[in-house]
Amino acid sequence: MPALPGALSALGILVSDVVKDYSRTILLSVSGKLPHALLMQEFAALKKQATKDFRREAWQGRLQYHPSADLRYRGQGYELNLPFTGNLLTAFQKEHKRRYGYAHPVREIEIVTLRLRALVKSPKLEIFRKAKTEHAETAALGRPSRAKQGLSFTPKVPVSFDGKALATSIYSRASLQAGMTYSGPAIITEYSATTVVPPGKRFHLDSAENLIVTVR
Length: 216
What we know:
four-stranded mixed sheet; 3 helices; elongated
């Protein structure tokens, strides 16, 4: 279970690159020579649209473009997508042979769709962890580091596993210590999630504060 599990998806969105995909169907038959000038003109139109969209949304950073094309032999009902280069037709022949075991060097090729992926790289995220404020001995809620005269404590509570009530420790995840191994059954609580560790398993925190559960 990763650190901050309830916020992991939101964190992933924040650190992901901003990506937009564009395409234009052209259905162009090619024999022998690639119509490079025409294709570059079509890609230029896609880049213009991508630049307009990114700037309108005020994304900062350098735009990166990854052009590609869908190709097939004339008469086929499926295409292969390949990065757009000056050797596009040769690359198609090689990829078709690799994928399907054969190629037709003299057969007419169709460029069906041009595609452009535009992206802005997100800045690298640095996560700072605050120091632990609780001692390892107080990780189990209700279990003090030493007994206090005149007070009664319940170190474990009954929890039902497969219909059987078992004495189960309840831990605060914030106070678990990396390098220490704990045993189930247990319940680990935190702000954005609750983790249940069944009996017969152990758990610990790794160096990145991910919760690792293993079989004894």
